[in-house]
Design brief:
The chain has helices at 14-23, 33-43, 97-118, 134-137, 156-162, 165-174, 187-203, 212-224, 268-283, 296-303, 321-337; strands spanning 5-8, 46-53, 59-70, 74-78, 87-89, 121-126, 142-152, 179-182, 228-235, 238-247, 251-259, 287-289, 308-318. By secondary structure, the protein is of the alpha+beta class. Strands 1, 2, 3, 4, 5, 6, 7, 8, 9, 10, 11, 12 and 13 form a 13-stranded mixed beta sheet that branches. Helix 2 packs antiparallel against helix 8, helix 6 packs across helix 9 (268-283) and helix 7 (187-203) packs across helix 8 (212-224). The N and C termini lie far apart (57 Å).
Length: 339
């Protein structure tokens, strides 16, 4: 008899999955059933959660992901905005690191085998705190290293003192302005947040993954569960900057951000970060993840708060000769028309 079996979870089993996620060292707010459900309803995507059960029919691991179909017949596991660490597993009660590693390798290989049997393309992120991608590397997955800034949430005094002098000065300058911060996450505030995010994305020639209506439903649903907060900062009632923070009891993650660049010299953008840290500290959140610092301008801004730059890894692989040929043809066509 096989030691473990893999099966797709139905909605009645999601509560068991969410408990596994909350208790796992690899758990992430982005792979909870309620986050995936809200995200997919808002974006029109589809998700699946695979469970790994032991002989006692206990859920000991799982893999949660967004899936698509391409060219009408090929199944894909895709990495989309925010989502990370889809592979979640139960901690082993042992003092032997080799036994914990052996369990992880066994579970990872089971999911690799399952995914490669059912999907032609597989891609996902390992979060910064968990970087052991060896089972995937040994199966010829491609790796791409990315970076974020990760740090501890401490008292406001300690946080402010740790900022770079220029950031600290901007915060103090902005504190003298007639500003206000809204954390109500009402529909009106969510719509204002959307407009600021879209403004920043347009400025950088990037597209928004949500429609305005989809963004509103996504934020509203998660805000009601306490898993998301929309922070908006105003100067004389003019919206200046926004941050959408996804959180659990342990970690807060900068999911989306935006602002009106005409007011960035006021320091209100830096003040908003500081006020978010203050609010998270009051809630008992331990860690903050700036989520991404992969362009010079973004890295420069986020580095000023003196968090630690840490890597996270994207792994990906294509399966099947026909699918590879189609993807190569698509790449060549895209390169040709881009000339």
């Amino acid at each position: 008899m096989e030691k473990y079996k893999i099966a797709a979870l139905d909605t009645a089993q999601y509560q068991h999955w969410d408990r596994l996620v909350s208790g796992s060292i690899t758990g992430s707010p982005f792979v909870t059933s309620y986050w995936l459900n809200a995200y997919c309803k808002a974006s029109g995507e589809n998700f699946e959660i695979l469970g790994c059960y032991n002989l006692e029919n206990e859920l000991v691991a799982g893999f949660a992901f967004i899936k698509r179909t391409k060219f009408g017949r090929f199944n894909l596991v895709v990495n989309l905005l925010g989502i990370d660490s889809p592979l979640v597993f139960q901690s082993r009660n042992t003092n032997l690191e080799s036994k914990r590693e052996s369990f992880y390798f066994e579970i990872a290989n089971l999911f690799i085998s399952y995914l490669e049997t059912h999907y032609n393309h597989i891609e996902f992120l390992f979060k910064a705190k968990f970087l052991d991608v060896r089972p995937f590397k040994w199966q010829q997955y491609e790796e791409e290293i990315r970076y974020t800034y990760l740090g501890a949430i401490e008292s406001p005094e300690i946080m402010l003192a740790s900022f770079n002098p220029d950031v600290r000065n901007k915060v103090k300058k902005a504190q003298k302005c007639p500003f206000r911060i809204d954390v109500s996450s009402t529909l009106q505030e969510i719509n204002i947040s959307y407009s600021l995010i879209t403004r920043s994305l347009d400025k950088n020639s990037q597209s928004q993954v949500f429609t305005e209506k989809g963004f509103a439903s996504f934020c509203t649903e998660l805000a009601e569960l306490g898993a998301l907060t929309v922070y908006n900062i105003y100067l004389d009632n003019i919206p200046v900057a926004t941050r959408v923070i996804v959180k659990s009891s342990e970690i807060a993650i900068d999911f989306q951000a935006g602002g009106n660049e005409e007011y960035f010299n006021t320091g209100l953008n830096q003040l908003l970060s500081y006020e978010i840290f203050k609010d998270l500290f009051a809630q008992g959140v331990k860690t903050y993840d700036f989520r991404g610092a992969n362009t010079p301008s973004v890295a420069k801004y986020k580095a000023g708060f003196n968090f630690k730059a840490v890597p996270y890894i994207l792994v990906q692989k294509n399966k099947g000769l026909l699918f590879n040929a189609l993807m190569q043809a698509k790449f060549l066509l895209k390169s040709f028309y881009a000339r």
